[in-house]
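Readers of this paper often ask what the protein records in our data store actually look like. Nothing more is needed to write down the fold, since each code stands for a local backbone conformation. Below, we set out a record of this kind in full and without editing:
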Amino acid sequence: MRPLKIALTALALVLPACAQADPAQVTPEAHAFDIGAFKAWSLRDLVNVVPNDNSVIGLAQTPEAVAAVLKAAGQPTDQITLSIDALLVKAGDRLVLIDTGMGPKAHGVLMGSLAKAGVTPDQITDVLITHSHPDHIGGLLTAEGKPAFPKATVRLTDAEWASLQANPQQAAFVAAVTPQVQTFAGGAEVLPGITSVVLKGHTPGHTGYEIVSGDARLLDIGDMAHSVVVSLAKPEWGMGYDSDKPAGEATRRAELTVLAKSGEPIFAPHFPFPGTGRIVVKDDGFALAPAK
């Protein structure tokens, strides 16, 4: 099958680069792991392939500079592959989905991955949104524009909801999800054991989510970092998807430094599936080590 552009109208309205994916090569998958007493699953949705032309990764650099970093990691040097995944957490009697992928109109396979975890859409009690880019909120609606998780409360920061509401090109989407939406202030405890972590720079109300059960914890970093190679090795290099690029660059360096010191596991929706691991120091940057 020829690569299918997933930079559909909604995505193109927000993201500056042309993304491509081949749905035939993306199959549903659910990777199970534990966070203390909580059960969790990484859920596959799609793959986003961006060119090495400095439009997305390595702003103000050169393709040759980015290629050198990719080559050192044994990766192709002409393009950068980013996963689009979601995180499911069973916390007590709640089934919490963090982000929803691109959705069925973009041929996302999140629903199939959810089924592999043994969960149906009407069992989801809460959907937590890191930010309102289409590859994180597209799956909130079915192909017919109906709520994909009809019994869930959709939670996102008040700043992110205000930003989404202010986008006239998202008016129909906003109208469809409004009955389910509850907002919160960045940094608040959203649900028992799940706290918002403000991660500035990507969008006005971008947040990560720290999940804590007993002594175990995990941070869903949202879009603080995109490429498992370039974003970690060169955290100060600009990211085309960030709305406030200097803030995004500063946040990456600061947060990766904290994570490398603490050893706290992370989930990164754009790192290679299943997107989990620990941040470690490597040279003057960082790398991802397998979760213990």
Helices lie at 9-14, 63-72, 110-116, 134-137, 158-165, 171-177, 230-233, 245-262. Residues 245-262 form the longest helix (18 residues). The mean pLDDT is 92.
